[in-house]
């Protein structure tokens, strides 16, 4: 599936803006134009826009509706592309059902047949999470419960586009690069019914550096893509009736017992677990927020991030290619723990969940296949990997992932399960989340280094795989200063991070550190959450807390 782009053969119409919105009953069908609907912004979550609690916390279905007119050209095909709606949705054109979205973090791409002069587009979103959705959740007595730590934002979260295609068009392009000696072999697979396929590769200065039909193209003396020099080439595919330009980078990744390598050079991951989250917008994609985030990541001297805990927008992936960040791409398998005694059981996370899990891995790899920034796939965050049924579940999911993904694989382990994890054998890089002096031994900053150090050494010895500490963090309220430090003060966050760094630096198998979190973010309300999760090194408005300055210096030299 290709991201919609306009050129001499293809048009795009952007349907973002103000739509009609209302909560609707279970059996609602948009047979007629919505009445009593209010205004709502697209893309955005609706939850922090509305002012009444009932709507904000509505569990069930909501309707988004808009009317559009576009010039419909003869012999052209039209499609609808919604970057993401949370979570499942049914899409209707002029009252007729045209397709479904199965998950809140993936694009929906549907044919638009029978376009009229004026068209009513209705999207009925269901925000409920069950054990057969990802992330999982449970609805009890009308209330939604879930065990992941970010707010269950609902809405049309990414761009809504209508685009046209010629009848015979380019459906998909897959680019693979092999770096070797003085040249790079670029393999190009084009999925199309077109007969004449001409490919050319342009360098960053627009010079044509290779031409050919699909298959193998050779770029001599290639500039490789790296975090220091994120050099991007453009592949131009042109046929008798269509054209598409796809950016790509020439780079190679591999892992061994000791490390992770980009273009054969060892990589040390410096960065954060993040979230798509901002005031009012919720999880709505926003170019200004995205750029601010990347500017701050650069300012921090970071080189990587994890898309905790779901795939981020395609616009963010494009920016990561351009800014030169290594991305650990994560599927929305999070909160698969703390459900009574067992989490993986016939009545909880089960075979049906696994079918969706595998489908989402396939869709993510398909969506992100040409992004040089994506260097590793994370199949889940903190599932209960010590449970026997989880062992079976992940054996199945991970062996499937290997058939659709040639990148290194990981699964991010939760503190209490790592030791007895039944999945370590099947992954390439061990990722662990640790919260000494926070969730365990709260405030005992003196234990952090020893505890983490012992664990990292023992774990590396046993697993013989490189380790990234993918989460460690302390909730910190900006403006709270204390000497000696106490938890929640800015001083404590800095000291806490320093203790973690000491342990990380002492372990030869440790190949990276991702602080939890880049910025404060909204969560469900809870005793541990005063205005959300405050472990950000940046505030929710994206200003640095005290620790940011220390970490920035550390990463400059690391
Ligand atoms: C970890 C989770 C993350 C949470 C974090 C925390 O992976 O999603 O936000 O804890 O509690 O266990 O801050």
SSE topology:
Elements: E1 12-14, E2 17-24, E3 38-42, E4 44-45, H1 53-56, E5 61-68, E6 76-82, E7 85-86, E8 88-93, E9 96-101, E10 108-111, E11 119-126, E12 138-140, E13 143-145, E14 155-156, E15 160-166, E16 170-180, E17 183-192, E18 198-202, E19 208-212, E20 215-220, E21 233-238, E22 243-248, E23 253-255, E24 260-262, E25 265-266, E26 269-273, H2 287-299, E27 304-306, H3 314-323, E28 326-330, H4 351-368, E29 374-381, H5 388-404, E30 409-413, E31 429-433, H6 445-463, E32 467-471, H7 490-506, E33 510-516, H8 546-557
Parallel strand pairs: 26-27, 26-33, 27-28, 28-29, 29-30, 30-31, 31-32, 32-33
Antiparallel strand pairs: 1-15, 2-3, 2-5, 4-14, 5-11, 6-10, 6-15, 7-14, 8-9, 8-11, 12-13, 16-17, 17-20, 18-19, 18-21, 21-22, 23-24, 24-25
The site of beta-D-glucopyranuronic acid (BDP) has 9 residues, from loops.
Structure in words:
With 558 residues, this protein is an alpha+beta fold. It folds into three domains: 12-166, Galactose-binding domain-like (Jelly Rolls); 170-251, Immunoglobulins (Immunoglobulin-like, Sandwich); 255-450 and 461-494 and 511-556, Alpha-Beta Barrel (TIM Barrel). 20% of the residues lie in helices and 31% in strands. The strands form eight sheets. Strands 26-27-28-29-30-31-32-33 form an eight-stranded parallel β-barrel, surrounded by five helices. The protein has a six-stranded antiparallel β-sheet with strand order 3-2-5-11-8-9, with no helix packed on it. The two termini are 38 Å apart. The site of beta-D-glucopyranuronic acid has 9 residues, from loops.
């Amino acid at each position: 599936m290709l991201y919609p782009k306009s050129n001499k053969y293809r048009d795009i119409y952007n349907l973002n803006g103000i739509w009609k919105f209302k909560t609707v009953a279970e059996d609602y069908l948009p047979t007629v134009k919505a009445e009593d609907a209010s205004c709502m912004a697209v893309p955005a979550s609706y939850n922090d826009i509305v002012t009444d609690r009932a709507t904000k916390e509505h569990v069930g279905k909501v309707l988004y509706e808009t009317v559009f007119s576009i010039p419909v050209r003869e012999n052209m095909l039209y499609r609808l592309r919604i970057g993401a709606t949370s979570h499942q949705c049914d899409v209707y054109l002029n009252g007729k059902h045209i397709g479904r979205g199965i998950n809140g973090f993936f694009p929906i791409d549907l044919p638009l047949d029978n376009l009229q002069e004026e068209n009513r587009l209705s999207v009925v979103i269901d925000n409920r999470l069950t054990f057969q959705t990802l992330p999982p959740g449970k609805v009890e007595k009308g209330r939604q419960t879930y065990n992941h730590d970010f707010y269950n934002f609902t809405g049309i979260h990414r761009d809504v586009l209508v685009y046209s295609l010629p009848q015979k068009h380019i459906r998909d392009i897959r680019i693979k690069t092999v770096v070797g000696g003085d040249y790079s072999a670029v393999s190009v697979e084009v999925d199309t019914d077109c007969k004449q396929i001409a490919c050319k590769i342009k360098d960053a200065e627009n010079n044509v550096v290779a031409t050919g039909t699909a298959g193998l193209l050779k770029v001599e003396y290639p500039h490789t893509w790296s975090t220091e020099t994120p050099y991007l080439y453009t592949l131009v595919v042109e046929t008798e009736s269509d054209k598409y330009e796809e950016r790509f980078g020439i780079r190679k990744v591999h892992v061994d017992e000791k490390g992770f390598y980009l273009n054969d050079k060892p990589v040390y991951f410096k960065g954060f677990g993040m979230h798509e989250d901002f005031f009012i917008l919720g999880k709505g994609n926003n170019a200004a927020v995205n750029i601010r985030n990347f500017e701050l990541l650069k300012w921090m001297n970071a080189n990587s991030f994890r898309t905790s805990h779901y795939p981020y927008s395609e616009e963010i992936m494009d920016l990561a290619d351009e800014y030169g960040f290594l991305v650990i791409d994560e599927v929305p398998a999070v909160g698969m723990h703390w459900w009574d005694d067992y989490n993986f059981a016939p009545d909880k996370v089960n075979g049906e969940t696994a079918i969706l899990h595998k489908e989402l891995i396939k869709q993510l790899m398909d969506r992100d296949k040409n992004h040089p920034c994506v260097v590793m796939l994370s199949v889940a965050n903190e599932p209960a990997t010590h449970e026997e049924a989880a062992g079976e579940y992940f054996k199945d999911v991970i062996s499937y992932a290997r058939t659709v993904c040639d990148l290194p694989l990981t699964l991010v382990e939760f503190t209490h399960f790592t030791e007895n994890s039944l999945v370590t054998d099947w992954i390439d890089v061990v990722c662990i989340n640790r919260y000494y002096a926070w969730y365990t031994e709260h405030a005992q900053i003196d234990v952090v280094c020893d505890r983490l150090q012992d664990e990292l050494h023992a774990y590396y010895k046993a697993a013989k795989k490189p380790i990234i500490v993918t989460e460690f963090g302390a909730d910190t309220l900006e403006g709270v200063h204390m000497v000696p430090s106490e938890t929640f003060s800015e001083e404590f966050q800095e000291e806490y991070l320093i203790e973690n760094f000491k342990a990380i630096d002492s372990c030869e198998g440790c190949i990276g550190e991702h602080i939890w979190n880049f910025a404060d973010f909204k969560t469900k309300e809870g005793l541990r959450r005063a205005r959300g999760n405050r472990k950000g090194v940046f505030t929710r408005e994206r200003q640095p807390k005290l620790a940011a300055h220390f970490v920035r210096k550390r990463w400059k030299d690391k």
